[in-house]
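Memo to structure team: turn this sequence into structure tokens by end of day. - J.P.
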Amino acid sequence: MACSQNNVLLTKSTAGLYIRRYGGCIRSIQTFVTMKVLVFLALVGAAFAAVDDKVVGGYECPRNSVPYQVSLNAGYHFCGGSLISSLWVVSAAHCYKSRIQVRLGEHNIAVNEGTEQWIDGVKMIKHPQYNSYNLDNDIMLIKLSRPASLNNYVKTISLPSRCPVADEPCMVSGWGNTSANGSLFPDRLQCLRQPIIDDRICKNAYPHLLTENMLCSGFMQGGASSCQGDSGGPLVCNGQLQGVVSWGYDCAMKGHPSVYARVCRYNSWISSVMRNN
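Reply from structure team:
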């Protein structure tokens, strides 16, 4: 049965994945709860590439080199985020939980390295226009119960003073899943450098799915990408938080880069929430 490009339905599976159905065909849209970088090997006559579960293009971040990166914890690490002031963290709206502990100053989340600060979130504020169906406005603010102590291991990242431009170099980070079945998580923070994708190319890659509040970053040729990188984690370009890890098709798929919430669209909302709370 041929896939219809117009028959689109998003549902949430028990695995937490969003499934896109094109007529009789099913593809998964994954909310990026973990991060891995995969290489796809072409198979003659195959409809889809096979996965080689190696890290390609990514690397272990130098220890505490991403001091704005936080881990969201609910008895386990489940999402990432970015510290934007001593009291506020930016993450993805689909990472919302009623109780969240924010862990700052982390590198190896499996051991106590002496640089960590664990602070409870007291307010989790999703964007009022967040749409869980298409992940539009996939952004959330978390207020900490007390100010973080800023030091060499815990620092803030600047909000964008402008929107990013095509081919601008960026870095995404997170504690990534290294197993296709979602069971193996690296303890140490992983980084991947990748460019901003032109908006027109991004929209062509995801017809009828992209909104003006989303941007693409990654590699159109496939072979390497941030894949299931911690949802809510940072995409930083030239020292500014330009993206929040949101969703994407299967990892490293040619023609389908990763999708992020476009932070430059939310400066006013972020300022308003911080001012009024």
